Amino acid sequence: MPIRVAVVGFGSSGKRFLCLAKEANPSARFLVVTGQEVLEQGVQVSKSLDVLSGFNPNIVVLTGPASTRSTVAMTIPSTTKGVFLEKPIGVSFAAGEHLVSLLNKPSTLTQIGYNLRFSESLIIFRSMVQKREYGAVLSGRAETGQYLPSWRPGRDYRGTVSANSLLGGGVLLELSHEWDYLGWIFGKAKWVRSWFGTASGLDIDVEDCAHVTMGYNGQVSEKELVVQVNLDFLRHDRVRTVTAICERATLRWDGVAGLIEVFTQELQQWEILFQDSGTETTYEAQWKSFLSALEKGGKPEVTLEDGLEVLRIVEAIRLSHESGGVAIDVDRAEFPL
Fold first, then answer.
1. Which value, to the nearest 10 degrees, does the dihedral of the CA atoms of residues 279, 116, 153, 21 take?
2. Domain residue ranges in the chain
3. 101, 212 contact by CB (below 8 A)
4. Which of 41, 56, 251, 269 has the most CB atoms around its CB within 10 Å?
5. Which residues lie below 8 Å from residue 118, measured CB to CB, with a gap of 6+?
6. Bond from prior residue into 88 cis (ω within 30 degrees of 0)
7. Does 3.40.50.720 match the CATH number of domain 4-115+283-302?
C-alpha cells in the first residue's frame, strides 16, 4: 500500500512541503486540506479536516497559522506515524503545552520545522563555537532583519501571518528561528531582559522590532555568557548574523550569504572560512532527516520539547517587557494560562 501524506494548509510552506514529499515519494497518495485552489495534479483536496480520518495518513504536515495548531492536532488519526510541524508550535506557552499533550505519543514521531539547524555553515559554526576553536566565547550578538513588505513578493504584507497578532505574527514568533538556534549553539537560556514594540508606520498590529539581552549557562564560555539579540521587520538590507566574540578571534555566521568569517589580530581583516555548497536546501535536508527518523525509529532532529523551549523564551521576553525590562528567569517564571 502506498504511503499517504496529508498537508494541512497551503500557503508557501504547505506548497513547499507538498513538493518535497512528492519528490521523496512520487508514488505516495496526497491530500491537501485548504480553502485555497490547488492546481497540483494527482492530489486529493478538501476544505474540511474531517477527511483526515478517512484518508488515514501515515504522515501529516501541519502548516498554516500557529494559532490553528491544536485544532488540527485533535483531528490527526492515532494511526499516523509521523507529524511534521511548522514553527512556531503555538502563539503562547500554554498553547504549546496543550499541543505537546496532544502529539507526545510513543507511536508518533513529531519533528519541528526549524530548518536553519540544517544549514551547512551554521552546523560548522556551532561546532567551532562548542569546540572552542578560538577559545571560550566572551560575548555574543545576533541580528536578523528584513523589510516586511519585501518578504513575500506579489502578496500584500498586511494580509500575511507576520502582520497579524491573532495568527501568531510579530518578530518574536515569526523570527523564532533565533531563539531555537541560539540555544542550540550557546546552550540553555537562563534569563532574559527585553523591550519590543512598533517603531514603523507599517499597517500591522504586532511588534516590528525587539531588543533582547539573554544570559546563557556557560556551556561555551568560562562564565555566564551574555548575548544581545536584535530582530526587526524594518531593515531594507536583509541580514541574519550570529557573532561569537572569542578569546582569540571574532567568529561570524552570515545566514544570508551562507558563510563563516573570522577576524584575528594577526590578519586584521575578515577571512572567509567556509561557504555553503548550495547542493541541498535546508528544507530538503530537514525533510530527509524527518523521513530517516521515521524509517529508522530514531529521534527527530528538532523535538516537541525544542519547540516548547522556544515558546518558554518568548513568554519570558514578553513578561520582561511588561515588567519594565527586568530580568526574567526563563525556567522559573509563571506564564499566563
1. 60
2. 4-115+283-302, 119-278+313-322
3. no
4. 251
5. 282, 285, 286, 289, 301
6. yes
7. yes
Domain 4-115+283-302 matches domain 119-278+313-322 at the CATH topology level:
no
Query: Hey, how many other C-beta atoms are within 10 angstroms of the C-beta on 223?
Result: 9
Sign of the dihedral through C-alpha 82, 177, 255, 131: negative
CATH class of the domain defined by 119-278+313-322: alpha beta
What per-residue confidence (pLDDT) applies to 1?
Answer: 57
The 3-state DSSP class for residue 83 equals: strand
Tens digit of pLDDT for each residue in 64-79? 899 999 999 999 999 9
Alpha-carbon radius of gyration of the chain: 20
Is the link from the previous residue into 26 a cis peptide, with omega within 30 of 0?
Answer: no
- Are residues 256 and 272 in contact, defined by beta-carbon separation less than 8 angstroms? no
Please tell me whether the overall predicted TM-score, pTM, comes out greater than 0.85 for this model.
Answer: yes
Give the three-state DSSP class for 107: coil
Alpha-carbon gap, residue 29 to 10, rounded angstroms: 17
Between CA 179 and CA 194 the distance in angstroms is 13
Cell numbers standing for residue 100: 505537546
